[in-house]
Automatic annotation (TrEMBL):
Entry-linked InterPro entries: ABC2_TM, ABCG_transporters
Location relative to the cell: Membrane
The protein, known as: ABC-2 type transporter transmembrane domain-containing protein
Keyword presence, NAD: no
ABC-2 type transporter transmembrane domain location: 21-230
Claim: Transferase is one of the keywords in the record: no
Transmembrane segments annotated in the record for this chain: 40-61, 73-94, 115-135, 147-171, 178-200, 269-292
Keywords, alphabetical: Membrane, Transmembrane, Transmembrane helix, Transport
Membrane topology classification: Multi-pass membrane protein
C-alpha cells in the first residue's frame, strides 16, 4: 500500500458523486452568505439606496438633447456603480480559498463541484440585488415605458453582476491577499471604463489598446442598454431640436451615430454571458493548478 501511494502521490479519491458534492456545498455557501450579515445587509441597503437616490437625481429626465445626455450619463453611472461594488465580495472569496485548499487536498470534494456550487448560489442573490436596484431607478428616471424594455434592462443588470462576480472570483484565485487583489481589480475596472468607448471613441484609440476595448466589461452592457432604450422609447420621441414640426434627432439617429443597431442588443448579452463563463473557467483552472502544485 505504501509503495502504491509513493507511485501516485497526487491520486485523490472522492466518497460522493459530483451532484451530491454540489448540493452539500451549495447548502453550505447559502448559510455562509446568510451568516455574513454585514455584507448581505450592506449590499442590500446599497442597492436600494442607490436605486432611489439615483432615481431621484434623474427623476423624469424627459427627452430632447438634455434627455439624451442624461440617459447616457445615467446608464454609464449605473454600470460604474454596479461593477465597482462587486469588489466587496473579494474578502469572502479569499477566505473560502483557504478552506478549499485544505478540504480538496484531503479528497473532501472536487474543485469543479466547489466552483459550480458557488456559481449557483450567487445567481439568486445577485438577481435580488439587481431587482432592488432596477425597480425604483428605472421608473423614477422614466426610461422606455414598456415592460419588455424593463425586463431586458433587469436581465442586463443581472448578467452584469454575475460577470463582475466571476471576474472578482477569478482574481481571488490568483492573488495572495486582499490588498493585491483590490489593487488589481480596481485597476482593471478603471481600464475597462476608460477603453469602453464611452469616454474615448474606438476610432481615436491606438490600435495596441483595442484589445482592452473589446474585452471591456463596461462596453457590452452599455451598448445593450442604449439599444434597448432608443429602440423601445417610441418613434414619437425626439432627442434633438424640432424644425417645422419635424424631429431632427430621433433615437435611431443616436444609435446610428454610435454605430449600433437592434442586432447589438442580444449579441452583446451573449458576449456578456460568455465573459461570465470564461472568467469562471479561468478561476477554476487557476485553482486546479495551485492545488495540484500544493499536493506535489
Amino acid at each position: 500500500r505504501d509503495h502504491q501511494l509513493d507511485q501516485k502521490p497526487d491520486k485523490v479519491t472522492f466518497a460522493n458523486s459530483n451532484t451530491k458534492e454540489v448540493m452539500v456545498l451549495a447548502h453550505r455557501f447559502s448559510k455562509n452568505i446568510i451568516r455574513t450579515r454585514q455584507l448581505l445587509m450592506a449590499r442590500t441597503i446599497q442597492a436600494i439606496g442607490a436605486g432611489f437616490g439615483l432615481g431621484s437625481i434623474y427623476v423624469h429626465m424627459g427627452y430632447g438633447t438634455r434627455g439624451a445626455q442624461e440617459r447616457a450619463g445615467f446608464l454609464a453611472f449605473t454600470l460604474t456603480f454596479l461593477l465597482t461594488s462587486s469588489i466587496e465580495a473579494l474578502p469572502m472569496f479569499l477566505e473560502e480559498r483557504l478552506i478549499l485548499a485544505r478540504e480538496t487536498s484531503r479528497g473532501a470534494y472536487r474543485v469543479s463541484s466547489y466552483v459550480l456550487a458557488n456559481t449557483i448560489v450567487f445567481l439568486p442573490f445577485l438577481f435580488l440585488l439587481a431587482t432592488l436596484y432596477v425597480v425604483p431607478s428605472y421608473w423614477l428616471v422614466g426610461l422606455a415605458p414598456n415592460y419588455s424594455a424593463f425586463l431586458f434592462f433587469l436581465l442586463v443588470i443581472w448578467i452584469l453582476l454575475i460577470t463582475a462576480n466571476s471576474f472578482v472570483a477569478f482574481f481571488s484565485s490568483m492573488v495572495s491577499d486582499f490588498i493585491m487583489g483590490n489593487s488589481l481589480v480596481t485597476g482593471f475596472m478603471g481600464a475597462f471604463f476608460l477603453f469602453s468607448g464611452y469616454f474615448i471613441s474606438k476610432e481615436y484609440m491606438p490600435k495596441y489598446w483595442l484589445v482592452l476595448h473589446y474585452t471591456s466589461l463596461f462596453k457590452y452592457p452599455l451598448e445593450a442598454l442604449l439599444v434597448n432604450e432608443y429602440t423601445s422609447v417610441g418613434d414619437d420621441k425626439c432627442f434633438g431640436p424640432i424644425y417645422a414640426d419635424r424631429c431632427l434627432v430621433s433615437g435611431e439617429d443616436i444609435l446610428a451615430a454610435s454605430g449600433l443597431t437592434g442586432e447589438n442588443k442580444w449579441v452583446n448579452v451573449i458576449i456578456m454571458v460568455a465573459f461570465a463563463i470564461t472568467y469562471r473557467l479561468l478561476g477554476y483552472g487557476v485553482l486546479c493548478f495551485k492545488l495540484l502544485r500544493r499536493r506535489q
